[in-house]
Hints:
By secondary structure, the protein is of the alpha+beta class. It is 39% helix and 20% strand. Strand 7 (408-412) and strand 8 form a beta hairpin. Mean pLDDT is 76; it is low at 35-67, 140-144 and 455-459.
Amino acid sequence: MLTLVLIGLLGGLITAVSPCILPVLPVVFLASGTAGKPPPDAHSTGTTAVEAAGGEVLLHSPPETAVRPHRNRRPYAVVVGLVLSFGFFTLLGVTIVSALGLPEDILRHTGLALLVLIGLGLLFPPVERLLEKPFSRMPQRPVNKDGSALVLGLGLGLLYVPCAGPVLAAITVAGARGEISADIIALTLSFATGTAVPLLAFALAGHRVAERVAAFRTRARGLRITAGILMIALATALALDLTTALQRALPDYTATAQRTVEDNEIARQKLSGLYDDSNKELSRCQDGADELRSCGQAPPLEDIDSWLNTPGNRPLDLASLRGKVVLVDFWTYSCINCQRAAPHLRGWDRAYHDAGLRIIGVHSPEFAFEKKRGNVAAEARKLGVTWPVALDNELTTFNNYRNRFWPAKYLIDADGTVRYFTFGEGQYDRTEHMIRDLLRRADPTVTLPAPTDRAMDDLTKGRTPETYLSTHRIRGYTGTPLTDGTPTRYRFPQRPLPLNRISLDGTWTAGYEHFTAGPDARLALTYHAKNANIVLAGTGRVEVLVNGTPTRTLTISATPTLHRLTDDDNARTARLELRIGEGIQAYALTFG
């Protein structure tokens, strides 16, 4: 359990400095700073007065006798309230709301209401006294006078929507499914504690600025009014979802640190131990692997509350999509990382839908308010999500796929086998490459458009690009000019072929969809990759030579099928020559 606690603590620390928590930082800063020391000439007229600046308490009996002011605890009260509220309701909020039959977004609306009340309290002192009144019944300690700060923290905890990683995913799944164990409680407490440390540092910074900057001491009332207006404005912005534009514009600068802490080998073992042993075959796949793998049959989409974007909003069964390549995208609409991934999904849907790609969005809510169907439908429209969306409100399907991230993408081949997955943002070029590879395997004759994501990642950098053996689409051809539709004798160039260049020798009939081999047909190219592949059809044999040395012989006797030509552990540059039997049709060359 100690390792699990350490993972939760470090995960919380990283989460608390991620872009997703930016909306609450100004409130934490100002709420702590509005308790600055009052100006020297300030006087109180009652026996107990909460000064206009917020947290200093002076006792007068008579007025000329003063008790030493207590240490201001507003920063601690704000952060304690936030962490308690966030930890409690993340783990138990769904269960409580469901048991009481309350609306799914009641907690979020409560948080917005508390934020508005605190803002009104800063604007109108009678409202603040009303908020602090419940704490006046507690034993009279100075901290009780910071009750409004604690209420503010409790409200912020209901609005706190951090970027979810494996730790928060494990907590959320356990809470949604009511599977709360000692390990889950320890993980939740350690995560909340880790989250508190950076937030407390920020709150104390606000308090220290208020103490040291003269403007805070001499214009306390004006600053309280400013803070009150800001809090009400923030509540309005959160209610109208206006803060997400800023969050989407910022890079996810904590992603690398989060993966290092929460998705290393030890963390995966500890966190996966919180799940059951179902669908363990998925562990054969690795996040963002550079090749397709066989990771077991895709788990069904189970316990789906309802569907969007299907005919009549009827359920969709994965079995009905056999023969298609399916991308299952796990997302939740308040997740900034998911929102930033949406444009790539839209591009793939436009580019590859006609070629056989089907995208299914599985909306697995991180928080209770994300369960509401109307909210999901509205946000899906904003993001341009037109593909089917399954509302996985109990996170059953999320759990079945042994998922740990929002967003997460699983690629399923035409036979229903999971072949690839990737967690979080990024690796879009790699994912698109895998989509194209699976589409060709499902239908070797398919014609694919140019890739939608042009920038190449480390996997594809320097690698020979794919090329079609088509008179209109061949890439890097050199040698005898191509003749369309007529058997023609071709000759290799006398000079060595440069990198990424392809040439023909012997008799070939070049066509729009494929090249057909005639007598003595040969094909040569210089490539750089780990492996080379070709789509062939017909009947006959193909001899493969690498740098002039025969390496294998392929027996062709089928409709268009993808064949592996070379397979190396590392990318290398080599000259590939194919001696192709007469009548065999060649469609495309791909490289991995």
